[in-house]
Amino acid sequence: MELSTCLTQLESSDLVRRLREEDLAYLIKHALVQDTAQESLLKNDRKRLHRLVAEALENLYAERLDEFAARLFQHYDAAGAKGQAIVYAERAGDVAARLNARAEAILHYARAFELAQTDGENSETLIRLMTQLGRAYELAVDYDAAIALYQRTRELAQTHADRALELAAMVQLAKVWAVAAVRYEPTQAEALAREALELAREINDERAQARVLWVMMLLNLYGAGGAKQGAQYGEQSLALARKGNWREQMAFTLNDLFYTYLNLGEMARARASLLEARALWRELDDKNMLTDNLSASGMDHIVRGEFDDALAIAYESRALASSISNQWGECTSYMMEGYAHLERGEFGKAMPAFYTCIEIGDPINVRGPVLMAHYELSKAYAFLGDMERGLKFARAGLERTRSYTLGWDAWAYAVLAEVESARGDWDAVENAAREIPDEPTEYFFERFLPIGVILIVLLQARMERRRGEWGAARARLESLETRLRASELSLFLPDVLMERANLAIAQNEREAARALLEQAARIAAEMNLRATRFQIARAQFDLDFGTRAAARQALEALLECVPSDLRASFLATTAARHILQND
């Protein structure tokens, strides 16, 4: 019987339908019919036909192989052609990764990696596939799967005495453990990174050395060594990456050098690192890391008092993160938005942003941004007179901080102390302050973001003032002010100047206090820091340096930005009542 006759009979039986395509093509209408037809073939015949189909697709669509990569993988895999199956599985994974189809990317990379292990592929192929699969797991926020993959791969490498593969797995595992916002295991990460660095140098793998040194920078950024040690590792990593022109590693290292330089107060270098990294992420078309870079840039603008720029960056970052289903990026962008609004006293916009940060970040275990949102919500509620919720968020933030072992305990205790201070419970303030290490300011700058450092150091100075240790408090505050001015960290100057004014009053230096408050008021006005301007105006009024009318004006400007459900509690605070008492 001729083929055309058979096809006609199949069509009349409603088993197949001819497609309206240029080439002769039919669609089998029932999956069971297709399965039955395939199963009727001998195994070797099925394999042969799958290979023929794959080869035909390659010839027909030679210019569109990415589009057909998944189908080509399926046919070559069914044909038992491992080499071609690996090639197209990886290619299909790459296509899915570019489209941020993470489940599909994981499926294809996992099969490619599985086949490569059984097909005796070389270390380079196994390393590349492991890295791609691990990255897909990480972007899907499945860090447990990523860790398990790296551990299994290391065991596999040890079994086959494949030192290059073992090194790659060690570096990937150390990286996950080194990131404070993910699965932070600093002790294990440091031991593994040192072992990996020794092995990388032994086998003269400079690319792996660059990656390990980057991991060691991350460990020291907020860890034991501090930012100075971290900068040394980061700069070594960058030098090696530049030497080899390894663009992706250059981008990773530059991206995180920003935080190192930020903590060291080297703002020009911090911004330059971010901008160079951003250009590289655009060149590499890595939208996930571009999102991360934009969020970091938001922090850069915030600490300089450039709030409009910070908000524009936060919105750009969120739009990009949303377009690629990057919840981590969305979470971080909301945190940055919250900070930018909060510093301008826009509580009605800041607090919902922090809540959304927590809502998005909690289910996927984003630690750093979610903790910072707790810290800021606790302070905001306390400032606005809702002590119950302020204390609730402060205690929840402290509990989370301890459980995450991030090393942020001093920051969390400083937040708690600020809330207790607003409540007027100085015994509780002193208890919280005692939990903070008695270390110089530089120690904290090397281990915390500036936002946390300022809170800690101002608490230290305040406690010294209350104990009558005026010389120590003055030295601490003047040193802090000098650093802030040199580092362009303009945002924090009014708070430091206000604390210096409090110290001057304690020492009966009224004219010095007046000058300090006037200076603080000018800076706060330039940046439109409503809450800070209110605090300064209130202090000036209390000390007869300013009028009730000026204080009232600052209060009303701030009240416009307070959520309606918190206005009553804010107006009931001592600061507000004192200004309004004769109205």
Structure, described:
This protein has 583 residues and is mainly alpha-helical. Among the domains are: 3-40, no CATH class; 205-285; 489-583. The protein is built from 31 helices and two strands. A two-stranded antiparallel ribbon has the order 1-2. Helix 6 packs antiparallel against helix 7 (123-139) and helix 21 (409-423) runs antiparallel to helix 22 (426-434). It is elongated and about 100 Å long.
Instruction: Give the proportion of residues in helices.
Output: over 70%
The coarse silhouette is: elongated
Class per helix and strand makeup: mainly alpha
**Spans of at least 5 consecutive residues with low confidence:** none
Strand residue percentage: under 5%
Strand order of the largest sheet: 1-2
Mean pLDDT: 90
Q: Number of helix segments?
A: 31
Integer-rounded radius of gyration: 30 Å
Work out the number of β strands.
2
The separation of the N and C termini measures 104 Å
Major sheet size, sense and barrel closure: 2 strands, antiparallel
